[in-house]
Specification:
Number of helices: 2
Distance between the termini: 35 Å
Order of helices and strands: HH
Structural class: mainly alpha
Radius of gyration: 19 Å
Number of strands: 0
Largest sheet: none
Keywords: Membrane, Transmembrane, Transmembrane helix
Helix content: over 70%
Number of domains: 1
Strand content: under 5%
């Protein structure tokens, strides 16, 4: 995220463009991050309580 903003800043984009890019990408990133964390936590919860047995 910071790298994207730095890249936009280095290319000397307007402030409006930077805000639009940040707003769009941060929303997608937060949604994907929360979804992934929810999936990971739910799998670990099921494994811990013995509902799912993982065999490697």
């Amino acid at each position: 995220m910071i790298a994207l903003l730095l890249f936009a800043g280095l290319r000397r984009c307007s402030l409006k463009t930077m805000k639009t890019v940040y707003r769009n990408y941060s929303a997608k990133f937060i949604i994907i991050f929360l979804g992934g964390m929810l999936l990971l936590i739910s799998i670990l919860y099921l494994v811990q309580n013995g509902y799912v047995i993982l065999k490697w």
